[in-house]
Amino acid sequence: MMTHPEYVPMSVDDAARVQSRMAAQITGPIKDGEACAVDSGTAYSNTIINDHFLSTGELAALLHVDASTLRRWRGATPPAGPPFSRLSPGVVVYSIVDVRRWIARSRIDPAECA
Length: 114
What we know:
This protein has 114 residues and is of the alpha+beta class. The chain has 5 helices and 3 strands.
């Protein structure tokens, strides 16, 4: 009979490093002469892996919302939230570039509202 190695929970420091790597894939400083992912010129670098996709769970963790929130947004009429791609009935992914654009469009600057 095959035995499985014991489950070792991830330390808080390791979990924070994973979260930081996920956030670094979405955001990053813009360097001189670098193209922006968003037309408005917001601080999102295009040099980070732009063909990377996030699962519902990964994006939910990054946005600090429950995965059910993203599923509810997708099922709303009209759909809400960031653009997504349905690869099969059970597989939905989010492009980092689309998530960057959605975040930039959702930005509200109080100074502009005054």
